[in-house]
From TrEMBL, chain A:
Signal peptide (residue range): none
Name of the protein: Sugar ABC transporter permease
Species assigned in the record: Falsiroseomonas algicola
Key word Electron transport present: no
Cellular component, GO, one term: plasma membrane
Amino acid sequence: MSGGTTTGDAAALSGAAADRARRKRAYARHYWPFVVPAAIVVVAVIVFPWIFTLWMSVNEWKLGSGRSFVGFANYERLWGDERFHASIWRTLYFTALAVVIPVVLGTAAAIVFHRRFPLRGLARTIFILPMMATPVAVALVWTMMFHPQLGVLNWILSQFGIPPSLWVYDASTVIPTLVMVEVWHWTPLVMLLVLGGLASLPVDPYEAAKIDGATGWQAFRFITLPLLAPFLMVAIIIRTIDALKAFDTIYVITQGGPGTASETINIFLYLNAFAYYNMGYASAVVVVFFALIIGLALLLLWSRERFKDAAR
Amino acid sequence: MSGTTMRARPWKRRLESLGFGLAVFALVSPAALVFLWMLSLSLKNEVDNTAFPPVFIPNPPTLDNFRAVFERNDFLLQAWNSIVVSFGATGIALAVGIPAGYGIAKMRATKAAVLILIARITPGLSYLIPLFLLFQWIGLTGTLWPILITHLVLTVPIAVWVMIGFFEGLPGELEEAALVDGATIWQAFRHVALPLARPGITVATILAFIFSWNNFIFAMVLAGRETRTLPVAVNNMLTFEQISWGPLSAAALLVTAPVLILTLVAQKQIVAGLTQGGVKGG
């Protein structure tokens, strides 16, 4: 704090409070030793890998053979790699669906769970089980349910007179099917975030709206939704990041197949690093992938600011 | 309001609560049905599991699938690996994360919190390539250490994140009183703040443990035959025993059971922790 504001603060505060604030500030810098052990761990397992990845991405490095500096050759190769381009579009397609559907369903679910009803606690616990369950375990159950001949899902379809689907075994249905698993898995997280938002809403506007004769829908559209906007934005950003990074269920269920029909960036990255052992090339993928994630997150934050300005 | 609307009310309300009940049912059943189907598959013999139309209620239920899982001589070893890794990674995360959360909250070091956020945004795979090479160089492969250390990528940020939020919410006056009375800042932390932070520590412990227990990708890349954790082991069962659904479901159920039970018991803490940070592992 600069001199001018300090005198202003001191005048505003009572003597004892100012004393305490000063002592707090003086103490603050003594707390750094508390952070040292965590900082060491974070540097070793998080910061070191970031820097090392940047370095590897400008090297040709195939496990078993040697390493050589190649400048931006890996990035140039990525620029022309059709398979990588396809994986980006596939990831964006998957992400768009895996953001919009959980956010809509999760908001609806939050509105339901915000009301009091018998057995609400139990219902909510069951509802959030999918997101806590081990992804590999539930992915295996889904795999069994997707079986074209013996799977329970095709039996359910047949009960409604719908012809059987090939689910994850057909290139045209594999992404929507994986989105369905992702929606099942992560809608609860959106619900929890929005539910937290609903709990924090003020009551006054609703009472005023009731007096003015607003319908339930109007109250939702013109009071709840605008007040929920910041929470929805957080949910959208978290969903976007998580959907871009989705790996476990896709890998377990399809491993990117059939062919490359469900090969998202993360699967492409995995195959290059740990099936083909092209460490340098895979590192370049990591860098581009990370830039894409940060870029999309910033774009969402920016659009939120724009949205706020427009509302003013 | 006229009399007709008053009279119309009872059936309208009944209709409304029926619709609401259906909405709750529609929301809960996809979650419930998948887990019930998993249970059903694990309790039926192979003939019933591959019957079409499907057999839903095991009749009679059999524990043969679970017996088959435990008779695979490596299942107990893999369970042990999972326990060592998850408890180890959670313990280290708490040991470094609780003081760090305290220090960051006291120093109001928001920049440190941003670093934690970026760590959360980074795809898990991107840590693996450098760490994989590092472990090869220093010759740790074949032990549980590489897996435990990479799990710190998940557990340390969540522990720090939860603890920052928790310590920021504490009033701080009690510690100040202790400091005025001549306690060192370490004593104020150890004897005043730490006991108050117990609920926050519970949240951090549960979430760190679950993230570590559920993690698949790190162990899949780093584990050898002897060091596989349960998620990796269960995934391998699918690859090698294509259509033996009973043991597979039984194994999947055993892997996820600790987490499901923990969720049922500690739902409140988990919800508090997740809504605060909006975080998940991976």
